[in-house]
Design goal:
Length: 526
């Protein structure tokens, strides 16, 4: 890959929007720029997952006329006509009056989409404009020389499990460009390295989202054109999060559960919590007769303004979830991802001179301000933090006035919240087991490659078993970790690339790097 003017790492909504906008701006200026997007997923959208209730106006700005394009994305898009928020008790449910729900949390004008199909749609539009989109290319590290981001190094390919090269071995390659835009998603390895290199903020707070697609032979009991969010059961009051059901047509429903990773229980299993949620009498009636056809899991950056560090540096910018552009007051991030990608692209084209010369990229933050991204983040700056301080019952009323709190509230690392001896002791609800959940993600890795997951100090796991119930054997939605009497046994081929393990391990004893390109989950409609 030589002669690239703008390199984008990550083919999610943010990265693809950056590629599209860069080509548009260059064309309007009568310039020809080489724009390339590389992504570790095997195909477009395979590593993209979200709820997703989406504010579509941003696409009107990026791709005027997009609503008239026939595509699986636009064909399955569902306008929101009904919305509910419910408080679940162990046996019942109460509807929360719409009048007490802040206006920013309403979904008027939103559409329900598949984020996977959105990425597929954007990839096709980018390719039509001349953006080169390469799948199956894993970027492992940044190239920084003299304080300037010069590009990325790719993963070494064709190694055996012991690290020796096979016949098809390919050494790690470098991909260089005058401008690099990092769009590697929530808790991305490269965006994290960028923050450490050029200016980190407060540690990011993350949630883990569990999601399933349920299909029905007849119109679903949940109905169409409807979104529903839930608070309460099954989550304990100290655990931030809630459930959702979104219709994706008359016969398809997306159902999910979001859990803040700063829970205190060593034995909390998010997949078990998800099945307990689906087994609730009120929820199970809405899903009766349906068959689960796809599942997935993904982390969500929730630290807000306090966790947004440097977003630009000489030679590079960070966009989307990797920068932390998620507004938990709205429970949304996709339109911010697209908008930030557009802002970064405009900044990059403006800064690119002749012969690879690059001016300052500092104007990116000003564009984010002008686009309203940072203003929204500022308004929601303490929304997640008040729940961390007060739990559900104190956090809920405080969240209504959180924007008026003048001081930026802090928060701690998620794994540090796990308390010694704290156990949830959740009984098995007797529904979908973890192995089936993983199978429905379609995740796939080469079995004989070096593990991309490493336990730094196995001896710590013995202590962790007594103190924290070997938390990794519970919190990992991919069942990568198993306690075998005196040690942790890894199954890296199950990995869903959520990277919860690197922040939720109480002793920070786990390393995770992206595996060979083309591996991981194969999401198709999440």
């Amino acid at each position: 890959m030589d002669g690239i003017d703008i390199l984008i790492v990550g083919a999610g909504p943010a990265g693809l929007a950056a590629g599209i906008r860069a080509k548009q701006v260059a064309k309007d200026a009568g310039r020809e720029l080489a724009v390339a997007v590389i992504d570790k997923a095997p195909a477009a959208g395979n590593h993209v997952l979200s709820g997703a209730a989406f504010e579509p106006a941003v696409l009107d700005d990026l791709l005027p006329g997009w609503r008239e394009v026939r595509h699986s994305f636009t064909d399955t898009m569902v306008p929101v006509q009904r919305e509910d928020m419910m408080f679940l008790r162990a046996k019942g449910a109460n509807r929360i009056p719409p009048l007490v729900i802040p206006s920013r949390m309403h979904h008027t004008g939103d559409v329900i989409i598949s984020a996977t199909r959105l990425a597929q749609f954007l990839a096709e539009q980018a390719t039509r404009l001349g953006v080169e989109v390469y799948h199956g290319y894993t970027a492992r590290s940044l190239i920084v020389e003299d304080g300037v981001l010069r590009g990325v190094r790719l993963a070494e390919l064709g190694l055996r499990a012991d690290g020796t090269p096979k016949g098809n071995h390919i050494p790690a390659e470098e991909v260089r460009a005058p401008v690099t835009i990092l769009a590697d998603g929530t808790h991305g390895v490269l965006s994290g390295a960028f923050a450490q290199q050029f200016g980190a903020a407060h540690p990011q707070t993350l949630s883990l989202g569990m999601k399933a697609i349920v299909q029905f032979p007849e119109p679903s009991p949940f109905g169409n054109n409807r979104v529903m969010h839930t608070l309460g059961y099954p989550l304990p009051p100290s655990v931030f999060g809630g459930g959702f059901l979104y219709s994706l047509g008359e016969k398809t429903v997306a159902v999910g559960l979001i859990l803040g990773l700063d829970w205190k229980y060593g034995d909390l299993d998010p997949q078990r919590e998800f099945e307990t949620f689906r087994a609730h009498p009120y929820i199970s009636r809405l899903l009766q007769g349906g068959v689960t056809v796809a599942t997935g899991a993904k982390t969500i950056p929730e630290g807000g303004l306090a966790s947004i560090g440097a977003v630009s540096a000489p030679g590079g910018m960070v966009v989307g979830d990797g920068a932390g552009f998620v507004n938990m007051e709205k429970i949304k991030g996709i339109h911010y991802a697209i908008r930030s990608g557009m802002c970064a692209a405009e900044t990059a084209v403006d800064a690119l001179g002749e012969n690879g010369a690059v001016g300052s990229l500092d104007g990116y933050r000003a564009k984010l301000e002008a686009a309203g991204v940072l203003a929204d983040m500022r308004h929601a700056r303490n929304y997640r933090q008040v729940f961390a301080k007060g739990g559900l019952f104190l956090g809920t009323p405080l969240s209504l006035v959180s924007s008026a709190i003048p001081k930026q509230l802090g928060h701690h690392r998620d794994g540090a919240a796990t308390k010694k001896g704290a156990r949830l002791n959740r009984p098995d609800p007797g529904r979908m087991d973890g192995a089936t959940f993983v199978a429905l993600t379609g995740t796939l890795h080469r079995e004989d490659e070096p593990s991309h997951i490493t336990i730094k100090d196995p001896a710590q796991c013995v202590t962790c078993e007594a103190d924290y119930a070997n938390a990794c054997t519970h919190f990992c939605p991919g069942q990568v970790y198993r306690w075998d009497g005196d040690r942790i046994v890894l199954s890296p081929s199950n990995c869903l690339h959520c990277m919860s393990c690197t922040v939720k391990c109480p002793t920070l004893n786990i390393d995770w790097v992206p595996p060979e390109g083309g591996e991981g989950p194969h999401y198709k409609q999440l």
